[in-house]
Amino acid sequence: MILLCIFEEKRNGIVIRQNKIFFFGLHFSDIGIFTLDCWGGRSRLGSWLGNTTQQRQAKTKNNGFIMQFHSFLEFVPKIQELRLPGLSEQLTMAPAIHKQLLNKPIINAKKAAVICLFYEGMHGETCFYLIRRSSYPGVHSNQVGFPGGQIDPYDQTPWEAGKRELWEELGISPQKVTQIRGITPVYIPPSRFWVDCFLAYSTSQIELNLDPNEVKEVISVSLAEFINIKKSFTDQLDSNGNKTPIYTLSDNTVWGATAMILAEIKSIIFKALN
After folding, report:
1. Is the alpha carbon torsion for 80, 266, 245, 149 positive or negative?
2. Tens place of pLDDT for every residue, the chain, 274 residues?
């Protein structure tokens, strides 16, 4: 197959330069997976996914996104170096009440830590865990979130607290978990928790052992599903007439602080791929 690409440089709507580039011997699946970077009147053709080992293994399918776990691991150094998107990205999924409380002083906040743990799924794909909390008399009863919990006085660091919670809630040994990096902490107004968030991965075979007092079920989310998902909104209005932004992952509604964390994670993954 032959692919012809025509690149034009315009000034005031007038074409002042035109370049034609032919690609020979392309397979149909290769077409359209390239990047074009235009800046300051200059055009240059970037590499299409497939020019490098990393990018070939992070490929598109049905206008979607697939990343094998061994490919994900190759991107870890870049994820570690990226500048965090921060609060501005988190706020794209924040409930209205959260935004209203931003400028108010936070007094006597408690500390917590959660971990987004990436691992290899049954078909070699990259996945991560969410959990549904057990029912209990509290504000987060039966909600979907990341494994994690309150930082105890004997926890040396928030990271150590997050690993401890993984062990207590899911039975995942701390020795099997490798930190990628911390991301932007998030405040949860209803429970008054400041939450430290960490990205991590495990290359070990994981056998889950749930604590039924804390975890009702584990939700395995593929990175492919997550990257493709778009935010939507609840039909129900809050007390001020606002709809709450949500993600629907594996038929589960995710909102609030967890959705805010996921928004930043999604932005980080996209930046790492570009």
Report:
1. negative
2. 445 555 444 434 433 344 444 444 444 334 333 333 333 333 333 333 333 444 444 443 333 455 899 999 999 999 999 999 999 999 999 887 767 766 676 778 899 999 999 999 999 999 999 999 886 655 556 789 999 999 999 999 999 999 999 999 999 999 999 999 999 999 888 778 899 999 999 999 999 999 999 899 999 999 988 988 888 887 665 556 678 888 998 889 898 899 999 999 999 999 998 8
In angstroms, the first-to-last Cα distance of the chain is: 27
Q: Model-level pTM?
A: 0.74
Domains, the chain, in order of start with CATH, read 2-48 (no CATH), 71-273 (3.90.79.10)
The CB density around residue 36, as the number of other CB atoms within 10 Å, is 10
For 185-210, the DSSP string reads: EEEETTTTEEEEEEEEE--S------
Amino acid at 154: Y
Distance CA 168, CA 165 (A): 5
CA distance 186 to 113: 10
Cα–Cα separations (whole angstroms), residue 221 to 23, 120, 127, 231, 260: 37, 11, 5, 16, 16
Backbone angles phi, psi at 103, to 5 degrees: -90, 5
Structure tokens at 246: 């949500």
* E strand map for the chain: 2-11, 14-24, 36-39, 42-45, 58-61, 64-67, 110-120, 126-133, 144-145, 148-150, 178-188, 193-201, 215-222, 232-237, 243-249, 252-254
Hey, how many other C-beta atoms are within 10 angstroms of the C-beta on 103?
A: 6
Handedness of CA 135, 120, 115, 60 (dihedral sign): negative
Looking at residue 40, what DSSP letter applies? T
